[in-house]
Amino acid sequence: MPPPKDVVKIAIQMMGAIPQLIELNQTKPLAAVVKEVCDVWNLGNAEHYALQYVDGQQTYITESNRAEIKNGSILRLTTSPDQEAERLHNGIRSHNLDVKADSLKKLANLSRDITFAQEFINRNGLKQLFLIVEEGNDTGEILAHTLKAFMELMEHDFVSWETLSPAFIKKVVRYVNTGGMDASIQQLSLSILENMVPSSRHLFELVKREVTLDRLLTHLQVTNQQLQLKAMALLIALLLNASDAERRVRSPRNIIHASEPMGDEMAHYLYVLQSITLNLLERRMRTPMDPYSQEQRELLQFLRHSAFESESEASAGTVSAERRRSVCVTEFRKLGFQNHSNPAQDLHRAPPGLLALDNMVYFSRHCPSAYSRFVLENSSRDDKHECPFARSSIQLTLALCEILHVGEPCECSETAQAFYLMFFGQDHFFQELFCICIQLQNKTWKEMRATQEDFDKVLQVVREQITRTLSLKPTSLELFKTRVNALNYSEILRLRQTERMHQEETLAVPVLELRERLKPELLELIRQQRLLRLCEGTLFRKISSRRRQDKLWYCRLSPNHKVLHYGDVEQGVQSPPIESLPEKST
User: Fold this and answer.
1) If you placed Cys at 175, which of 189, 302, 329, 420 could pair as Cys (CB 3.0 to 4.6 Å)?
2) Taking the CB of residue 297, how many other CB atoms lie within 10 A of it?
3) Which stretches make up the ELMO domain (predicted)?
């Protein structure tokens, strides 16, 4: 008989005691449950204890979140939030540095829990953290734990950021501006400033006045990626909260401070920010796939399973190893890998290296319907007309790296201002851009009715579609997507023709006269070449009423250029003699 819905079976641990396996009745008051657990272990003062998750963020169990407890959960009997808050509040005021450091470390961990945070803040604990920072007597580990605890407590929005004292803010700014400061302290300080900026106009003005753009750019060019990301987040927060007039200022010393209304240098710094961010991708771009890496091989298998889930599962336990290997080879071919038996070889070239694999996996995970449609749609086409997903992804990733100058040093000239506002509104800009462009490539492939021989030509058109759209400076990826999809192959041809005509109009008179004089000769040469090609003939696939293409026929023009000869031919025949073609057409 199944247990009642209000009962869950859980385990409860306590240091130095044998765990208890109990059936937790969710209708019973939590205080009564804790009392029963304490009684089993002969613990008095049950009100001083609480239950807490062992795994994850080790959240305290309360009446409001107890419904989240599942069958099989493991809990811990521990000190109650109010008792722990009191103990740590005393500990961080200790003159014993070891006790103080341990208390701050535990405080930083426990402050993620909203129940504990409320108890600690109610004891005026934030004021004690302010004093540690303002006095400036503690550095290193103690200071890092203090800032971490402060950040975790502020995340709960119990206290306004506007309550911060000028002395506290000045210390945090100094940690950011001082060279040689511990990286963990600088990361936390940058996070604090980032959270201050949008909270009020006063704090925004204070941060933009005290933190120089040059200093932030210095943080962006270090090797510590976490420090780079925190500096980037602060700079973006300042840009997002600035007015239009402030974004157009010139002064490079203060981010938006100023008196000289000119936008060139701000545009240049945005370009530098974008370049440094994109260059975080450089390591993946320059790392070839390791055929012995289990993790990387699993990603390849993930791509295969995501596209051909039912086929892969059907072959899993019912056929021989040889048959399964054959299925894998077939599915990797359908995915568009050129090396079907060892697809890792396709990713051995760097660039684009592992960045191409990252993009393919991101597309399959975040756009699963589009991914499946791309692969299955093309794998059902004739081999010559399928748009190979893997090959397209690898070459498109390389093209995007070249277009966005990934891995190239930031230009210092004032002309290096190819920044895109849409870049600053996405957590995974490059991957999201890839998702749009890989679908664009499939769309353009179909518009061009391309075959495998046209692959480079299609990629060239896609590259032109992307660069033309980027030149319009779309402000969001959605706008980029709309515009790039509107720029279809027909429109590209029209634009090319218009530009060609414009170029012809600007030619000098002697050049135009020479072209007119040579035109008859050139047209005759083109005519002769076309006739020669018709005389050589071409092999065609014969489409039956069932749309099958298993028969071939050949057509060629007679030497006197008056009759077309055609007829069925066998597979493998390259250029049959004209006498073997029985059918004629004048």
Assistant:
1) 189
2) 15
3) 295-470
Amino acid at site 205 = E
How many Å from the N-terminal Cα to the C-terminal Cα in the chain?
Answer: 87
The dihedral built from the CA positions of residue 113, 118, 122 and 124, taken in this order, carries a sign that is positive
- How far is residue 528's CA from residue 526's CA, in Å, rounded to a whole number? 6
d(CA 147, CA 189): 7
Q: Which two tokens stand for residue 402?
A: 């070249």
CATH number, domain with residue 574 = 2.30.29.30
Contact 482, 418 (CB under 8 A): no
Average pLDDT, the chain: 84
Residue 531, domain member (yes or no) = no
Q: In which residue are the tokens 């009020």 written?
A: 200
* 294 and 433 both lie in a single domain: yes
- Rounded CA separation 124/89 (Å): 9
Give the angle subtended at the CA of 519 by the CAs of 518 and 520, to the nearest 5°.
100
Nearest one of 163, 214, 215 to 189, comparing CA atoms = 215
Strand intervals (E) in 161-231: none
Backbone phi and psi for residue 582, each to the nearest 5 degrees, phi listed first:
-75, -30
| Concatenated DSSP letters of 9-31 | EEEEE-TTS--EEEEEETTS-HH
d(CA 105, CA 144): 9
- Residue-wise pLDDT for 28-57, tens only, equals 999 999 999 899 898 989 999 999 988 877
| Contact (CB, 8 A) for 190 and 232 | no
Among the candidates 466, 482, 498, a domain finishes at 482
Q: Which of residues 52, 79, 106 is at a domain's end? A: 79
Residue range of the domain that includes 27: 1-79
Do the domain assignments include residue 253? Answer: no
**How is residue 91 written in tokens?**
């500990």
Peptide bond into 559 cis (omega under 30): no
Number of domains in the chain: 3
Query: What's this model's pTM, rounded to 2 decimal places?
Result: 0.55
Give Cβ neighbours of residue 446 (< 8 Å, ≥ 6 apart). Answer: 387
Statement: residue 499 has pLDDT above 90: no
Distances (CA, A) of 513 to 411, 469, 498, 500, 502: 43, 37, 21, 18, 17
458 with 554, same domain: the answer is no
Residue 276 forms part of a structural domain: no
Cβ 133 vs Cβ 173: under 8 Å = no
**Quick one: 433 and 292 in the same domain?**
yes
Tens-place pLDDT, residues 520-555 = 999 999 999 999 999 999 888 777 666 555 678 899
Structural domain contains residue 420? yes
Q: Are residues 306 and 423 in the same domain?
A: yes
Buried residues in 203-216 as b, exposed as e (16+ CB within 10 A): bbebbbebbbbebb
Q: State pLDDT tens for residues 191-225.
A: 999 999 888 888 988 888 888 777 887 887 777 87
CA atoms within 13 A on the CB side of 558: 14
Q: The domain that contains 53 carries what CATH number?
A: 3.10.20.90
